Amino acid sequence: MHSIDQAYIDGRFVSPHGQEQMELVNPTTGDVIGHVVLADETDARQAVLAAKAAAPAFAATGKTERLELLGRLHASVMARSEELRDATIEEYGGPVSRSVWVSRFAAQTFLDAATTLRDYEFERSAGRSRLLMEPVGISTLITPWNSAAGSICGKLAMALAAGCTAIVKPSELSALQSHIVAQAIHDAGLPPGVVNLIHGRGSLLGPVLCTHPDVAKISFTGSTATGKAIAAMANDSVKRVSLGLGGKSPTILLDDADLDTAVPGAIVAAFQNSGQACIAGTRLLVPQALLADVLARVKSAVEQMVVGDPADPRTQIGPMLGAAQFERVQRYIRRGIEEGATLLVGGPGRPEGLGRGFFVKPTVFADVSNDMEIAREEIFGPVLCILAYRSEDEAVEIANDTPYGLHGYVFSSDPARADAIARRMQVGRVAINGMQHDPLAPFGGYKQSGVGREYGVQGLESFLETKIIMEPGNERSAS
């Protein structure tokens, strides 16, 4: 049984002031595997104080010091990658292939931040003036449960590269993974207070960490509803806010696509991370002329997907995080049937032979119209909606007819045609003919999928403020 009864504040693991204990549950079995003691408002204020005390010295560090620090963090997290892999499987139910990738990605974020930092100019000319980019200040980093280690490390890497001290508030539902990250951070030997990590409920810690007068920046990844609440809390003191929110990503399959590769690619996009991914391509847009062929291919492929033990290398779909997420997905599956969509494969209930755990049948709906709830709302589970279109213009119109705009996918045998469609999609990222990932490019969304960007130069600058210094003799003539 796991017992996580410490917070990481001011360079030390300490017993939190909070006393609430929350059970940790293995989603594969439904069994309790331990508990975590949750921090409270007092702990949150202590974390801010520690970050404040460390801020002036850390903001004064140069590139060389920060690059060395990022290198140590990479090595430290990488040394615990097997622990992270195992915790992701046990606590989250991530299929082993995904869990291995996430554990390595978490470490890699520090090297990616170092690459961005190495070539970045913090001081340069702007007109007749000097432009200085300075650390925004103490930053609150709030991360989700579906990619715990990667989200923590990704946000933290850029905050540290910019010279900001930080308070990390991970989801309490990922306490085991987050605690391993905290241990890795401690092993890297950072100055006390530069990074603080506390487990706790957002309803208690959020109001402190998002309104505290000493906090300058909030970086949040999670649901759109929670993001709106955080933005409202930050508004009173005009804090800098970056929000990575939900998605209902479209996959546009053009009529010249090679179906032998496009259909498997679209299925991977839809069901990645067991469907618990903000970038999942959960709306597949298919030309009417190809619809029958595509439906047959999708049905055959999804029926053969392996659902089960996430530790088994053959498994493609693991369990949902917990009972609440399982019920959420079941509710949407029932709603799709009520709305009149055609159930192509899957449906309500657990897969055959899986009576325990929070497993969902990979489900595909056909005859979906874009005004249905299952087409408009983020389900966050292995549910794919297939919509037909009759022209490219209609495909783009359907793709953009959503409150979200995080990610998109296009499949075509003509690169120029695919690029033209990608340019018309109202999303932050578009992948063409695959599942590409570029860690040095900015990531974020349009519309209600977020505000600001993470990763790359824009991700670094989200933790920086701009200062202009104008000196005598550089005034513009009044005439």
TrEMBL record:
Gene3D superfamilies in the cross-refs: Aldehyde Dehydrogenase, Chain A, domain 1, Aldehyde Dehydrogenase, Chain A, domain 2
Keyword match Ribonucleoprotein: no
SUPFAM superfamilies: ALDH-like
Catalytic activity: an aldehyde + NAD(+) + H2O = a carboxylate + NADH + 2 H(+)
UniProt-listed Pfam families: Aldedh
InterPro entries according to UniProt: Ald_DH/histidinol_DH, Ald_DH_C, Ald_DH_CS_CYS, Ald_DH_N, Aldehyde_DH_dom
Keywords: Oxidoreductase
PROSITE patterns: ALDEHYDE_DEHYDR_CYS (PS00070)
Keyword Cell cycle: no
Domain annotation Aldehyde dehydrogenase: ranges: 14-469
This enzyme's EC code(s): 1.2.1.3
Family per similarity comment: Belongs to the aldehyde dehydrogenase family.
Entry protein name: aldehyde dehydrogenase (NAD(+))
